[in-house]
Every structure is written in structure tokens, then in C-alpha cells.
Design goal:
Blueprint (H helix, E strand, L loop, with lengths): L1 H25 L10 H10 L1 H12 L22 H45 L24
Membrane topology: Multi-pass membrane protein
Protein name: PLDc_N domain-containing protein
InterPro entries: CLS_N
Amino acid sequence: MGMRWLLTGVVVAAAIILYALFHAIMTPARSVRALPKGVWILAILLLPVVGAGLWFWLGAPRRAPGGPTRPVQRGLGPDDDPEFLRRIETQRRQKAREEKLNAKESELKAREERLKKEAESKPEQEGEGEDPKPSDSTETDTTPGGAPQQ
């Protein structure tokens, strides 16, 4: 039974030492506290359990309380964001469509004004004071009930 606990202790100690060693190796040198990075690595290797404990207590960089465990990944710039580019393209198409419709509307309004002016000036040019003649001479008079008179 004692051998089982000893083996478990050795495995846990080896895991802590390896974790501390890799953590010390992967930590940027400017982030290490108290001693230079190389000294911490030697301390972990030469004083296995004590060196690992001292590394976590005194040498490892501190994290901000509640801060992220990894560096925050920066977002994409607008030129690299496909959603942003898609939205810009949609806005460009809508603006072009709107400009085209506004031009068409202006053209139709100008045409309507021209036709109104032509219609107003046409009776004045045709007869100037004369009553216009009916174009269809086969019309029959109708009574108020709608029946034709003969």
C-alpha cells in the first residue's frame, strides 16, 4: 500500500516539475519576475520540487485578476473582414440603384412637364377660339336611362 502512494507522489511531482519547466521555457524573458529566465530553469532542474514551487510563487508572471489566460486575439481589419466587405458592396449597389432610379424619375418628370406644355399649347395652335369638332360623327344621343335615341 505504501508503494502505491510513493509511486503516485513521484508521478505527481514529475508532472509538476515538467509543467514548471515547460512553463518557464515558454514564458517570454521580459515577463519573468525576480531572477533571469535561465536561472529559473536551472533552479527547476537542480532543485526539482522546490525549484518548481519557487518558480510558481516568485518567478512566473502574474495574471491580472479575472484577466484572460491567453493573449486576446485581435480582430480582423476592415479590409480583411469578409462580412464588412460584403456589407460595403451591398451599400454600393444600393446607392447605384438609387442613383439610377433618381435619374429615371427626373427623366420621367421632365417628359411629363414637356407633354403638359405641348397639350396646353396644342388647342391654342389648332383653332384659336373655335370649338373643336368631334372626331366621331356616328355618335348617337342617349337618354338619361342609357337607351339610345333615334
